[in-house]
Structures are given as structure tokens and as C-alpha cells.
Amino acid sequence: MRRALLLAVVLAPVTVMPALAQGSATTGTTATATATATATGNTKTAYHAADAPSSTPVVYLGNMKPVMDHASYFHGILDEFEGRYAPGGSDFRWDGEAWYGTDYNRVWLKTEGTLEHGRLHDGDHELLYSRAISSYFNVQGGVRADIDDGPTRTWGALGVQGLALYEFEFQATAYVSDRGRFATRIEGSYDFLLTNRLILQPQAEFNLYTKSDPARQAGAGLSDVDAGLRLRYEVWRKFAPYVAVSYAGYLTQARRIVHDQRGETGALRFTFGVRSWF
Amino acid sequence: MFTASRTRDGLTRRRFVTGCGAGGLLAALPLPASASPVAPGMVPAATSATWNLSVGRRRIEIDHKVLHAPCIGGTVPGPILRWREGDHVTLNVTNTLHDEETSIHWHGIRLPASMDGVPGLSFTGIPPGETFTYRFPVQQSGTYWYHSHSGMQEAQGLYGAIVIDPRRPDPNACTRDYVIVLSEWTDVSPMDMISNLKMQDDYYVFRQRTLASLPREARAAGGLGAALKDRLQWSRMRMAATDISDVTGIIYTYLMNGHAPDMNWCGLFRPGERVRLRFVNAASMTFFDIRIPGLDMLVVQADGNDVEPVPVDEFRIGVAETYDVIVQPRDSRAYTIFAQSEDRTGHARGTLAPQAGMTAPVPPMDPRPVRTMIDMGMGDMKPGHDMKGMDMSGMSEEDTHMDDMDMSGMDHGHMGHMDMEHMDHQAPPAHVMEVDDPGPPPINVENQNVAKMPVDRLGSPGDGLENTGRRVLNYRQLRATRPGTDRRPPSREIILHLTGNMERYIWGFNGRKFSESGPIRLKLGERVRFTLINDTMMEHPIHLHGMWSELENGQGDYRPYKHTIISQPGSRLSYLVTVDAPGMWAYHCHLMLHMELGMFRTVIVA
């Protein structure tokens, strides 16, 4: 787990993407490799599927399709909906997403934020178009708006989201702001099943920026981390209360910025929350 | 069979039928075919050529799960239809549903395409308030069934059995003759199931490998290291070895003739009598493993066609298959008919007894099966092993192009076509055959695996049944009592890969779902070999409408005629089809959610 996380941090999303697309790329070469194997006696040149897509569409009686495999679905999940408690100060955090669409094309809405001492920060909301590109990965592009009690920033977003090897949930997104700055966010989580309903989930999110933005407590380089170790109990699939320890903190240059602003540079907190979806 | 519950009177069906009750009592009374209701499981006393069937919704409660079930005559399952071979039957199906159309498909029945009952292919469905009259000659005999082909009505109760008397004397005629319809009951709508599975593919699976189950696995694997290695192997593939059924006993109550296990459907017998049991798997997502502890079962018919009797202790019945077995209980005691779901999350149960009210012990369920690398289409390869470890002795030089292939990676590559000629027990055709070979399916959004070493699994009873110590039926044992009618070798072979992406819950053939594929076009009169390569890690019961599928299982001219064939995970099998029925036909996996999500093709015969 830790190794996978470190790996994710090192790789910028741009370098990750070709690796993910490898799945579809490799199949082309395997197809040619087996072309010789099919021939047993007489040579064959081309594959032909009996059910190949046809240019002449089938006319169904009453225009009734026998099955509906092209429907749209709508789901939303609150991964984090939690109170975080520490002697230094408590806060409330949410992190969720919703999507609507078909197997290939979906619209995603992602939102997260932290409420601390009546002040909202780390508010991040994204509206993305998502396209399935391989067995387990989607490419996502759209806009991100940092809307909270700090100054507002808007970004263009492009990233990947999916299930990496060893069933590791992974997201990496690159952002470019209206002021020409770049940023990256990398998120990962993993479900360890202690029992079929009791699940331990380490999770982490890292933000990187090319330039500092002191008004938003962002520093150049690795700027902040939000991580948690959550133990949830799935009363039902869609409803799971949890206890956790969470850590939110600023790193490197951002840590000095926040320190100079006399803010809290990082805290480990006991956390209680509910994971739910519809 | 099931009547509507009357909760208002405080009398629920649950209380109404207790123990080995109503079924048995009614069974003792001879009832004319027209009489209604006939006891569940009882074959009507006489055949009839005309049936009036009314489709409506009725509130039914079973096992505390209330459903306004679409059904025929207010019962689940619907009435057993008894026909006679050679008759022209007339079936008037009236739709009394308020706002939805319906249809009835006569599963396994050979008939004109327009009578097959698939909306869009055979006809335009039956709108509310209207009656559609099916008329066709009955050209076959045996046990079959019918079900809706509209929406998800079949999953909620619109199904029933068909018994057709042969024209010739029935070699398997018994004084006691029961139909046993297996199915599921849930108050979760199929649309909700699909939506949940699209979000989380293991939504209904609560028997996965966990930390808690690790010690047990370590003992079984001979060490913690081996158990962990196997887990890593599966998680690297992003699949679960515990993925047996998509929808499980967590929401399903498994029914026998509409009876939950504690309602205990009962069939009566006199000791020494031969009892014929006609099993129909009318479930939408569940395979059952059936046994009757204490009794030998003689399998005499499969999918309506007589086979040479095979004595077994147990058999697996795929969705939409039928098997007739004969038992001969000699003792004056009760016997449990035990049908556990393949994933062992529940069972259907009934009783054969000399008197109503008797019960026999219900056996514990077997351990749930765990998928292996064979299911992944890697033949007998152990995780991490490569080709060097395999026994290649059966393969000729020409068949193995080892140099062209890279077998070191587990994710890609394909050698499905090099390995099978020697396994095929039929003689290879002497003439050049036209082959529709799609090649290895792509690894893409809709497909997550390629079976690199698909193997012949016809001799296997199926996952979870291989080392039970019981005699379990396998496909190789099915031998027709009569030779096939079409002795021509096939002139064309159609190879199809069964594919899917469990993670996204998409299913299809050749890496494509239905909406992205064309129809399969067959020429009237031709003889076609269908070859199925299952690249998924699940069983798929594949059903071709309108024409027989003659399973090439090594029995030569006595190959069994089937309408639904289980393709086991990681396997390759083939069957012959005489294309003698013009029109548009459905061809699909009979797991309803798989069909609905893309594992469906239109077959056009012209």
C-alpha cells in the first residue's frame, strides 16, 4: 500500500496515462501474433466475426430493441462525511462525487471541502466529462473551481480515474489555471476486507502546485496532504458508519506559508463519519 | 404454485401452507385438466390443445418479501401446460397488466418465428388489454418451460412449465410425475440490481476473501505464503476468486414450485414406486446443484430430449435448462429434495414423502466454490507458471507455434486456436469449412480477460462439484437415445468468445455488447458448428431460439439435442445447428442481467 502510494506521488499524471492506456495498445500486437496460429492447413488472412457490426441495421418489429444495454445510470457517493476532533481544533469535512451517464460517457460532479472554525477552506468542485478508455480506467476532463471562504480560483482539469493493479482505487488529475499556473492532484485508496462488512480503508490525497498561492495556503511543489485510515462497517452496502484517524497538513513551502500566517500546519485527528451512496 | 396472500384476513400464504401440506393433499386427488387450481408441481391429468392464459400482477408475499408479481392466473410459477406431440396448440394470452406490454416465449419449442414470443424479433409484444393467439404444431415431446421476454417480468414471476406427451409410448413414463420448477424470489427490482451492479460489481457478494478467512485459506493452501500469493494473483488481475454469482441469497429466497424452503413443497409417493421429477431452472441468475440424499437419481432426459439413463447422486442445472430424473424410493420415509445455489448462499428445498406432513433432514450446504486459473482460461497453469510447466504432449508440431507467442505475461496474448483440434472428439471434417473466427477478443472497456488456454470442460460437473465424493452429472455423459437426424458435417463454423467486464458490469460476445454488434446471419438449410470460448470467469447458459443445439460431447451421432448449453468459465465447446427455421431469432446468455446488458445477439435465418 505504502509503496503504491509513493509510486503514485512520483508519477505525474501525464506520465501515468500512457501506462494506463497500455491495455488497449497491447492487444493490437497480440492479434497479429496469433494470426499464424489459426491456420491449420489452409492459410487464412483475416479474422471475421459472425456478429461484426453491420452497415445495414436490423429492422426490429415495432422498432423494439430486444434488450436495453445502452441505458444511463445515476449514482452519487459521499466517501467522506465526517467530524474530525483534536485538542487543537475540530473540523468537518466532506468528499463526494456523483455521476450520470452510460457505460462510456458520463458527467461527473466532484466536491470536497473542510469547515474549520466556521471558515470553509479546501473547497474544490469539479464538473467533468468522463470517457471510459480501458477495462478499468476513465479519462476525465472539465473545470475545477476552488470556491470557499478564500479567494476563488478556476482551473481546467484533465486526468485519469480508475482501478489500478491490485484493485487500488486511483485518481490523478492535472490542472491549469486561468492565471497560467499548473497543479496536480493524486488520490488513492484501498479496501482491506477484515470481514465482509468490516473494511479498513487507507486513503490519501496530495496536491502539487508549480507556483505558490499564499492567499490559498498553496506552496510550490508538494503542497498539502489529506489522509485517513478509516474503519467502516457496511450495515448495508450503501450505508457505512466509520471511525478513523485522519491527517491534514501542509508540506514543504506551503508549511512555511501557513506557519507564517500563524495557521495550523498539520494535525492528526480522531474522526467519525458515514460513507453512503445512492 | 402460489396464490395471493390475504394479509387483511390475517391469513398469509405462509401460514396457510405449512409443512408438507397442501401440495401433497391435493396431489392425492385426481383433477381434470380444466380444474383450477391444480396443486403445484402436479402435471395436469390430461393434455389440452387450447389454453387461455391471463397475464396480470398480483400481490404475493413469500418469506416476508412482498411483490406485485407479473404472473399467469395469479400464481408463481404459472400453470403447468400439458400438450401432446402432433397436436396443434392454441394459446390465447391476454395481457391484463395496466401499463406495460407482455409476451410469452416458449422456451425450447420448435415453432414458426412469429410464434416465438420475443418482442422486436417475433412480434410486437402484447399491449395492455389485448390478446395474442399463439398457434403452432407441436413437433416434440418432453419437459420445457415458458417465460416472459418483456422487460424483467420473467425475473419477477412470469414463468411456468410445459409437459409434452410423446406420440410414441414414453419409455420414462411413471405413475408419479412431478414438475419441479426452481426459481428465485426477491422484492428488489431487476432494474435496481442492474443499477447497483453498475456502481459496485460485488454489491450482492458477502462471502469474499477477508482477513478473517485467511487462516482457513492458509490451511487449505498449505501455508500463509501460498494463500497470500494466490490472493495477490487475483487482485493483480482485479478480479475475485469468490465471484460465483452476481446476485445472491442475500436478497434471494430460492423457490421450489413457488415454495420457500420452510414452506416445504411436497410430492407424495408409495414406497417402491418410480417417481419422475421434471426439473426446470426458471431462475434468472442462479444455477442449482440438486440432490436427494438417500436416493439414486436416474437422469433420463435433458432439455426435453431423452438420454440414455445416467445414475447420479447430484447434478447441476443451469438457468433455463431442464432435466428429468427418475427416483425409486423404497423406504416409507421422507426424502429431501435439496437444491443449493451454486454460490452456496441459499437453497431451495422440498420433500418426497409417503404422507403429507413428513419431513427429512436438510443437509448442510457445501463450501462455496472458489474460482481457479482454469476458470480464467489459463488451462492447468498455476499462478505464475509459464508454458514450460505444461504438458504439451498431446499437441502436434503444426498446432503449436510456441515461438510466435509470448506466454510470459498473464494479461495478454492468446493461444486459444492452437490447442483444440486434438481435443475435439468429433472427426475433423474432410472438406474445407468456412470459419467465422473473430480472433482473440480485445482487452477493452467491455472485456477484461482473454482465455489464453481455454480447455474442454465437458467432462467436468462444474466449479464446486469436482471433488465432492458424489457422482455428479457432466455433459460428456449425456447420450441421446436416438441418433441425430442430420448426419451432414457442418459447412461453416462460427467461433464466438463470451466476454465481459465484471468491474463495469458489461457483457457481450467478442468484446462487444448487443448494441454495438450486428446480427449473426445464417443460411436456411446450412449446417453450422458454433464454437464458444468463454473468456469470462463465470458460467453462461447460452440459448439459441428456434433451433436445436447438438452438443459435440464425444457421443458421435448420439450427441444430445439441447436448447441451452452451459459454457463453463475458461472453456471451449462446440455444438452443431441445423439451420431449418427461417426468421429472426434470439441468441443469448440466459442469465437475465447478462442478457439485458449485452450478451445477446439477433440471429437472422434467410
From TrEMBL, chain A:
Membrane-traversing stretches: none
A GO cellular component entry from the record: cell outer membrane
Q: Name one GO biological process term.
A: intracellular copper ion homeostasis
- Which InterPro entries does this UniProt record tie to the protein? Cu-R_B_prcur
Q: Which molecular function terms from Gene Ontology are attached? A: copper ion binding
- Respond yes or no to whether keyword Signal is given for this record: yes
Signal peptide range in chain numbering: 1-21
Keyword flag NAD: no
Q: Any idea which UniProt keywords this protein has? A: Signal
Residues in coiled coil: none
Q: Name one Pfam family in it.
A: CopB
This chain belongs to which protein, by name?
Answer: Copper resistance protein CopB
Automatic annotation (TrEMBL), chain B:
What InterPro entries does the entry give? Cu-oxidase-like_N, Cu-oxidase_2nd, Cu-oxidase_C, Cu-oxidase_fam, Cu-R_CopA, Cu_oxidase_CS, Cu_oxidase_Cu_BS, Cupredoxin
Q: Which GO terms describe its molecular function?
A: copper ion binding; oxidoreductase activity
> Which residue ranges are recorded for the region named Disordered?
342-367
Query: What are the Plastocyanin-like domain coordinates in residue numbering?
Result: 60-167, 244-351, 488-605
Say which domain of life the source belongs to.
Answer: Bacteria
Signal peptide range:
1-35
SUPFAM superfamilies given for it? Answer: Cupredoxins (SSF49503)
> Which GO CC annotations does the UniProt entry carry?
periplasmic space
Key word Metal-binding present in the record?
yes
- Which keywords does this Swiss-Prot/TrEMBL entry list? Copper, Metal-binding, Oxidoreductase, Signal
Listed name of the protein: Copper-resistance protein CopA
Specify the species: Komagataeibacter intermedius AF2
